[in-house]
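From the pipeline queue, job 12 of 40. The input is one protein chain; the requested action is below.

Action: predict structure.
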Amino acid sequence: MFEHKKRRLSGAKPTGVVIALGLTCVIGALGATPAIAAETEGPVQTAEVAPEASPEATPEVTPEAPEATPEPTPEPSTTEDALIEVVPAIPAITWPMCEGDKFIPPTLQAPPDDHAIDYTFEDYWYDPPFTVPLRLQVYAELKEGYTWAAEMPDGWVAYSSGDGAFYDVYFEDVPCAPHHDRIVPEVPVVTQAECVDGELTEPTVTLPENSEGVTYELREYEDSDPRVLAKASWSYRFADQEKLPEGWLFSDLDVAWYDVKFDDVSCEPGAEQPEQREELAATGPSDAAVLGGAALLTVAAGVSLIVARRRVTGR
């Protein structure tokens, strides 16, 4: 019977179909589901390629993921714009002392400038070697991009503006330090401006002569009247304020100031002219006993002053 079917199949179907039917029988014997479409291999290839499509698609999508989500634009760095905190260095100081009866004067030196701070020691007020007692200061100024730390070293005090600081040094007196009697500065001569033949003269200040104990210096300013600075020489000290001549202001044991007041004078017709105070000061009596002289001399002097004033002012 098997031979009969074989002859019928061999006479009706091509050899490829017989092989396919044979495979179907074998697969069926193994318990698998046979493929129905035996004449075309398309469905078989599709079944074999479909599982491989997923791993091929994955590498194509993965590199596109970062491009789909752009990175955010970074904000300006607050760290780069922030001020850097610094602290000032301590000045170099040696304190006054006595070696037997010999006086060893103090010294003070400002720290050297660095990348963040400029230091200044304005010692023009005093010429070393310094004597005592004496107060000095060192100044520190911040450069751009820096600020003071919350805690400053001992002795340094920051200004409220935040851009500077000062270091205060006080040298106390010692027994062997040389001292002279307290001295007073002399009064400078101030000549006010006046009208002469319709022209306004320039006011002037004549300084007293320098002495062993005091030197004088005129300080001029653009927006105010000048001042006279009196500096006591080494080992000299000025008297207290109540003992200084009128016009002088006690600033320190070695420093006093005299404020010059210039009159507002105009040569315009009809302008009121101030009294010539400098002439009265220069020509007036300096001894109080002379003022207590005879009444006749006093009246004569008053008349002379009135005449002189009218000649100057033209009234």
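Job complete. Residues 17 and 39 are 8 Å apart (CA to CA).
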